[in-house]
Write a structure and sequence with these properties.
62% helix; alpha+beta; 427 residues
């Protein structure tokens, strides 16, 4: 790992008002997810995953009598295999949707969708043809579970393809076990299955799209808030400085022109004016600061200007998110962060698969931590050419020169890259 400052280890999260940012990097890392902020798309994904997982368990219980009745004609091993393939991953989906990452939820959901199709494919091998007195195979009635899992895991176009394949496969499985099945019966079963599942599919896609719109509008509002906050801070500083010039400087000069330079009162007034000017120069009340919401919006805007497809998450410690980040510090962090994003887009590509990139901003008392991760090609830190200045200058160098800032880069070939940027108000 390359770091711009040495790390100390701390056992528990503490206030950033009393520690250096390098210590906060480790101490504040385990932020409570309950108090953290999630985008609307993440929240809807998590709730859908939990609901679909629980629905899979409920459907399995409701279908047990029908499964048991039809299993009389099938060897016990086939029945167990079909049930496990159809429902086995839905409890897992419900569990991971409670607190796991978005990527894991989508992975388990996709696996559940594929496993459901595999259960359909088992039917012709397990059941006799035809099944006496059967009206439909039990899996035919619960195809919507697989479709919902697919729309949770994949893009809408792939979910639609899944619906068509699933409806065709379920209609074939149903026609296989029915006596006197004809192409007309198969077509009718296909239309019924596809039509019912299309309704569920549309509702889920619409809900996800609405959540994405909310996230986009939130990003726009955050950028506006950051701009308004910066403008308001500049206006306040101009007004404060104008008042100081009028009330102190001009008043002192006017008194000096009238009373000369020997007056003790004038001397004290001049000393006080100089102290006020020195306070303004040093910046005890530093202008142009961003609060937690404005800083988050500023960084989100910077990342999405480079690539709007990067997942951006903000987390706060409830009650301790009183961030006052100077605009110039926010600009430095944003510049280092966007350089890390551009480096990843240029060098982390892996042939044959999509590289996942995420930015996580964590805000605690008086400080901010920004983590950019990708699961791309990675690299060996010691083998970076000397003329490659993106890491040493544009990322670590920028953060090293920022008062209260620190930067860290971790990477291994084949394991992706993590860039961590930290700022604490105590320097």
């Amino acid at each position: 790992m390359i770091a711009s400052s040495m790390l100390d280890t701390t056992a528990a999260p503490v206030s950033l008002d009393h520690i250096a940012p390098s210590r906060w990097r480790r101490g504040a890392a385990p932020v409570s997810k309950k108090s953290g902020y999630e985008g609307a798309s993440d929240r809807i994904l998590r709730r859908f995953g939990l609901a679909i997982g629980i629905a899979g368990v409920i459907v399995a219980v409701v279908e047990l009598p029908e499964i048991a009745d039809q299993s009389r004609l099938v060897a016990g091993g086939w029945t167990i295999l079909t049930v496990v393939l159809a429902f086995g991953l839905f409890p897992v989906l419900a569990a991971v949707s409670i607190a796991s990452s978005r990527q894991l939820i989508q992975l388990v959901s996709g696996a559940a969708a594929v496993s459901f199709l595999a259960a359909m494919a088992v039917i012709p091998f397990a059941y006799p043809n035809p099944v006496p007195e059967a009206s439909s195979v039990w899996l035919y009635r619960v195809l919507a579970l697989g479709v919902l899992a697919a729309v949770l895991a994949w893009r809408p176009i792939y979910a639609v393809v899944y619906l068509v394949i699933g409806a065709a496969l379920s209609a074939f499985a149903n026609a296989f076990v029915l006596p006197d099945a004809t192409p007309v019966v198969w077509a009718g079963d296909f239309v019924r299955a596809a039509g019912l599942c299309a309704l569920f599919l549309w509702c889920a896609i619409y809900a996800k799209a609405a959540a994405d719109r909310v996230d986009r509008e939130s990003a726009i509002e955050s950028r506006r808030a950051a701009a308004v906050a910066g403008a308001a801070a500049r206006d306040r500083e101009r007004a404060r400085f104008a008042a100081l010039i009028h009330d102190a400087v001009l008043s002192t000069l006017l008194d000096a022109s009238r009373a000369g330079t020997d007056s003790p009162v004038l001397r004290r007034q001049a000393e006080r004016t100089l102290e006020q000017l020195d306070e303004c120069r040093v910046g005890d009340v530093e202008p142009n600061r961003l609060d937690a919401q404005s800083a988050t919006g500023f960084l989100r805007s910077a990342v999405h200007e480079v690539n709007p497809g990067i997942r951006f998450t903000a987390r706060r410690w409830s009650g301790f998110d009183d961030l006052r980040l100077p605009v110039d510090a926010a600009g430095t962090i944003a510049a280092a962060l966007t350089e890390a994003v551009r480096n990843s887009l240029r060098h982390a590509t892996v042939p044959g698969r999509e590289v996942q990139r995420t930015v996580t901003v964590t805000i605690s008392a008086g400080g901010i931590r920004v983590v950019f991760r990708d699961d791309g090609a990675g690299f060996e830190m010691g083998q970076v050419p000397a003329d490659r200045l993106g890491i040493s200058v544009s990322i670590l160098g920028r953060m090293r020169q920022l008062a209260g800032g620190a930067g860290f880069v971790e990477s291994q070939p084949g394991e992706g890259t993590t860039v961590t940027l930290v700022w604490g108000s105590d320097g």
